């Protein structure tokens, strides 16, 4: 497995945090090895059929791609603009194109059964542009599988009531985010681009930094917090879910 080289610089979403944080975000801050069934990696994998060909756009360090590969016996190509993250993904045995998704990449490597955007679309000023390119690389009946942060999470709602909208280095309020999604807007987004929503779920993500800062959550043992938040997500996913997980399938 190897990384394909590039000759011209490509934009790095981490640059969008300039001025909103004290320093540049850590490139491996979303290193994610959790196989908790309520976390993003396993949720995304559950929407992918076994032995599928998968394109993981913005694959980062490859932690999510590794889970999908191992859980679903998938063949995966990653696309990632950040060189440091590319090297970490390649070290996992993943094949990675160093650059951004283009029609040329799709023509060279497609078609795919699934295209994955794992917490990627919120970093883009024009997410529809890249989804339309990905759409061209799908097989008939293929699907895009997506995770996006839930901006209607109760943490964000409470802070807005208190007049706060403070950027952070990780999580829902990541300073590199340019777009914001609710349960309704992510569905409408894909429907307008010619997809049908065929599955939807939500993550718990008990390790959000706010759960260690806010009361009463910081007073609870992690296992207790995990059980309680998990129950709340099942009852009110739009309020307590950390991420929306969507499978959007091409219309016939």
Describe the protein's architecture and organization:
With 252 residues, the protein is of the alpha/beta class. The chain contains ten helices and eight strands. The protein has a single domain, classed as Vaccinia Virus protein VP39 (Rossmann fold, 3-Layer(aba) Sandwich), CATH 3.40.50. Helix 1 (40-46) packs across helix 2.
Query: What is the helix content?
Result: 25-40%
Number of helices: 10
Strand order, sheet with most strands: 1-4-3-2-5-6-8-7
Counting DSSP E segments of at least 2 residues, the number of strands comes to 8
CATH class wording: Alpha Beta
Give a short account of the largest sheet.
Answer: 8 strands, mixed
CATH topology: Rossmann fold
> In terms of per-residue confidence, which ranges show pLDDT below 50 for 5 or more consecutive residues?
4-8
**Total domain count:** 1
Specify Rg, calculated over alpha carbons: 18 Å
How much of the sequence is in beta strands?
A: 15-25%
Name some characteristics of this structure.
about 250 residues; alpha/beta; Rossmann fold; eight-stranded mixed beta sheet; 10 helices; about 35% helix
Condensed summary:
By secondary structure, this protein is an alpha/beta fold. 33% of the residues lie in helices and 21% in strands.
Chain-wise SSE layout:
Layout: E1 3-4, H1 40-46, E2 53-57, H2 63-72, E3 75-80, H3 83-91, E4 95-98, H4 103-109, E5 112-118, H5 127-136, E6 138-149, H6 154-161, H7 183-192, E7 195-202, H8 210-213, H9 222-235, H10 237-240, E8 243-250
Parallel strand pairs: 1-4, 2-3, 2-5, 3-4, 5-6
Antiparallel strand pairs: 6-8, 7-8
């Amino acid at each position: 497995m190897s990384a394909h080289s590039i000759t011209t610089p490509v934009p790095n979403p981490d640059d969008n945090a300039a001025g909103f944080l004290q320093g540049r975000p850590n490139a491996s801050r979303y290193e994610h090895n959790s196989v908790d069934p309520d976390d993003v990696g396993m949720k995304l994998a559950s929407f992918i059929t076994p032995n599928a060909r998968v394109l993981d756009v913005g694959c980062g360090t490859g932690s999510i791609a590794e889970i999908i590969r191992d859980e679903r016996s998938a063949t995966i190509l990653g696309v990632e603009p950040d060189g440091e993250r590319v090297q970490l993904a390649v070290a996992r045995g993943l094949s990675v194109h160093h650059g951004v998704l283009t029609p040329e990449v799709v023509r060279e490597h497609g078609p795919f059964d699934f295209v994955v955007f794992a917490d990627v679309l919120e970093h883009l000023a024009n997410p529809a542009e890249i989804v339309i390119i990905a759409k061209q690389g799908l097989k008939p009946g293929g699907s895009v599988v997506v995770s996006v942060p839930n901006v209607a999470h109760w943490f964000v709602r409470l802070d807005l009531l208190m007049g706060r909208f403070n950027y952070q280095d990780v999580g829902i309020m990541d300073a590199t985010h340019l777009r914001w999604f609710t349960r309704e807007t992510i569905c409408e987004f894909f429907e307008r681009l010619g997809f049908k929503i065929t599955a939807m779920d939500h993550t718990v993500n008990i390790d959000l930094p706010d759960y260690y800062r806010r009361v009463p959550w910081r007073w609870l043992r992690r296992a207790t917090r995990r059980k309680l938040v998990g129950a709340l997500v099942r009852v009110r996913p739009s309020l307590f879910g950390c991420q929306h997980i969507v499978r959007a399938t091409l219309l016939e």
